[in-house]
Amino acid sequence: MTASDDEPLLRATDLEKHYTTADGFLDRLLGRGQTVRAVDGVDLEIREGETLGLVGESGCGKTTLGRTLLGLLDPTGGTVTYRDTELTNCARAELRELRTEIQYVFQNPMASLNPQLTVGEIVGEALSVHDIVPPERRDERVRDLLETVGLRAGHASRYPHEFSGGQRQRIGIARALAVEPSLIVCDEPVSALDVSVQAGILNLLSDLQEQLGLSYLFIAHDLSVVEHVSDRVAVMYLGKLVETGTTAEVFDSPSHPYTEALLSAIPEPDPCWAGDRIVLEGTVPSPTDPPSGCRFHTRCPRVIPPAEYDLEEDAFRAIMTLRTRLADADPDAGLEALCSRPDRSEDLTATLREAYDIPRRLQDPDAEAALSDALESAAAGDLDAARERLASAFETPCETSEPALSAGPDHHPIACHRFDDRYELDDAETDASIEHDDRFARGSQP
Ligand SMILES: Nc1ncnc2c1ncn2[C@@H]1O[C@H](COP(=O)(O)OP(=O)(O)OP(=O)(O)O)[C@@H](O)[C@H]1O
Fold this sequence. Notes:
Layout: E1 10-20, H1 25-29, E2 35-46, E3 51-55, H2 62-70, E4 77-82, E5 85-86, H3 92-99, E6 102-105, H4 109-112, H5 119-129, H6 138-148, H7 165-177, E7 183-187, H8 195-212, E8 215-219, H9 223-229, E9 232-237, E10 240-246, H10 247-252, H11 257-264, H12 313-328, H13 348-355, H14 365-379, H15 383-393, H16 397-400, E11 406-407, E12 413-414, H17 427-440
Parallel strand pairs: 3-8, 3-9, 6-7, 7-8
Antiparallel strand pairs: 1-2, 1-4, 4-5, 9-10, 11-12
Helix pairs in contact: 5-6, 5-7, 6-7, 12-15, 13-14, 14-15
The structure holds adenosine-5'-triphosphate.
GO molecular function: ATP binding; ATP hydrolysis activity
Domain ABC transporter: 10-263
InterPro entries: AAA+_ATPase, ABC_transp_ATP-bind, ABC_transporter-like_ATP-bd, ABC_transporter-like_CS, Oligopep_ABC_C, P-loop_NTPase
């Protein structure tokens, strides 16, 4: 079976996986508990023979997405289609058959291998469950598989604890290969291994892809590894994809501010490297109550200022950081919730400006008046009033509507309002943005 040229091998459409954190039956009955929107409307394609890298900070939903694509988790919405069969809507027997086509390689090979079984039994289990080869040929097939992954046929009689981390991962790969899959979801397959053995596993995966025409979804937080192995890359933030493209498109000219920040954190071996690391404000918000509009707006270094003011991007970012802190603050905690500096001056509004890197005076008089009001409320300990004043005076388009994943300046898909004609940025800002992109183009010289 092969997918036609224009049909992807696997396609997810508006895929959702929400967990509920209700503790027990009574909680669920009474509707108590929270919804964790781990995967929240993902469109994604994996093509025949390619490696799609999936990157994003810890907790953004990568593993949940990988497991939902595979059917290890039931989606709460959307569809997954393998070739021309919708997995999310097919009969049990057919699903059981198709399960062999998509396999999973886990991050921690020790935890995923049954210590009570020999390696031969682990790798052979799937052969008997799915009746892949006749019983009399199973041992031979297991021995072949072990040799394919760089182990010895004689290893079949040993137990997982007798192997090193890298060898255990090879056993996990042999087990996945046993059912002759077309697609393997590799979930952080080398991150638990010593750097010295990582290359061996990556080379093995690459050789197997070449020999067997496999496709991979390669989940990893190590961006250098992803750049090395992937044909295309998808960047995920808080349950959604924010940028996808070929590896060159995403790594050489990242357009989404989140991708820029992620890539700027890759350690750079070149001592002449001129790019600065982009430090994002705050922590990743909770997927139980994600920010409205663009989920990244609470941390985005390029959050779009309100059109009615003439505001510098940096000044607006600083105001948004204060707004986000106010939104999260316990109103009873008073000023301490915003500023715990021991060196507070008499003028608390000046201390707040300093603590949040807000200029002493904004260039736009209306913006300055609104900000001064809010700071005075905050300095007086009335955090509710400060929060409301800032929210009504400094609303960004990034929080009012959700950006769709659509063609950006380099034609690969990006979910960011900066590239939407409705939110026209003036020429200076767009030029600054392009210069900024160039500065972060990997490999560029100062
Ligand atoms: N079974 C579960 N019940 C409730 N919430 C869960 C469950 N599994 C994961 N989550 C939550 O879903 C979100 C996404 O988790 P997931 O493990 O998919 O992210 P990830 O990007 O793979 O993270 P990491 O890189 O750390 O493995 C997190 O907030 C996590 O706490």
